[in-house]
């Protein structure tokens, strides 16, 4: 049985957690808690300008962050047809989405995960969490709980017990409005 309750509690307390995704482990936090996001960026040594990915249990969890009215029906259909799954879409944001999530962009990268444990985590937390690979800059992303504990164990409040879904590559990243591919999956 996964330790979801412990991980949700850590998220609600503004902590940074680790969790399995489709290919590698991710680290995440509450996207609405600026202090938590700052902790995550410091831990990853990641510049705020790069922005963050949000990972969710379903499309509805993303609606407070994305402005899908800027997508054509065909663009929205293309996005929805790829979810749940390992495709991250860069979408226009709502005006109130803070720069600590979007970085230098007026868009945000979002994904509806197919990973059942992460879906459950987001449902129990009640919203998306941030998603960036569980590694220190320059090192390989962790693919097991042990890998994550080795690199980041002392920096994370909790690590969700589970396994990745065995994909070799991280999620593909595409632009929802243009279809351009930023990162191959």
From TrEMBL:
It comes from the Bacteria. One of its GO terms (biological process) is tRNA threonylcarbamoyladenosine modification. It catalyses: L-threonine + hydrogencarbonate + ATP = L-threonylcarbamoyladenylate + diphosphate + H2O. InterPro entries: DHBP_synth_RibB-like_a/b_dom (IPR017945), Sua5-like_dom (IPR006070), TC-AMP_synthase (IPR023535), TC-AMP_synthase_SUA5 (IPR050156). Its main location: cytoplasm. It is found in: Cytoplasm. One of its GO terms (cellular component) is cytoplasm. Its EC number is 2.7.7.87. The keyword Secreted does not apply. It is an enzyme of class 2 (transferase). The keyword Magnesium does not apply. Residues 167-185 have a biased composition (Polar residues). One of its GO terms (molecular function) is L-threonylcarbamoyladenylate synthase. Keywords: ATP-binding, Cytoplasm, Nucleotide-binding, Nucleotidyltransferase, Transferase, tRNA processing. Residues 1-185 form the YrdC-like domain. Residues 163-185 are annotated as: Disordered. Belongs to the SUA5 family. TsaC subfamily. Required for the formation of a threonylcarbamoyl group on adenosine at position 37 (t(6)A37) in tRNAs that read codons beginning with adenine. Catalyzes the conversion of L-threonine, HCO(3)(-)/CO(2) and ATP to give threonylcarbamoyl-AMP (TC-AMP) as the acyladenylate intermediate, with the release of diphosphate. PANTHER family: SUA5, THREONYLCARBAMOYL-AMP SYNTHASE. This is Threonylcarbamoyl-AMP synthase. The lineage of its organism: Bacteria, Pseudomonadati, Pseudomonadota, Gammaproteobacteria, Vibrionales. The gene is tsaC.
């Amino acid at each position: 049985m996964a330790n979801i309750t412990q991980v949700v509690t850590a998220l609600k307390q503004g902590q940074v957690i680790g969790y399995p995704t489709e290919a590698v482990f991710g680290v995440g936090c509450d996207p609405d808690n600026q202090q938590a996001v700052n902790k995550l960026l410091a831990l990853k040594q990641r510049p705020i300008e790069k922005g963050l990915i949000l990972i969710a249990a379903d499309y509805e969890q993303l609606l407070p962050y994305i402005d899908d009215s800027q997508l054509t029906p065909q663009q929205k259909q293309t996005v929805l047809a790829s979810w749940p799954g390992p495709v991250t879409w860069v979408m226009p944001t709502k005006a109130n989405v803070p720069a600590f999530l979007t970085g230098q962009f007026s868009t945000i990268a979002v994904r509806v995960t197919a990973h059942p444990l992460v879906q459950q985590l987001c449902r129990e937390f009640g919203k998306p969490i941030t998603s960036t690979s569980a590694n220190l800059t320059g090192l390989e992303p962790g693919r097991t709980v042990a890998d994550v504990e080795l690199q980041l164990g002392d920096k994370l409040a909790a690590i969700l017990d589970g396994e990745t879904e065995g994909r070799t590559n991280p999620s593909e990243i595409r632009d929802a409005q243009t279809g351009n591919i930023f990162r191959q999956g």
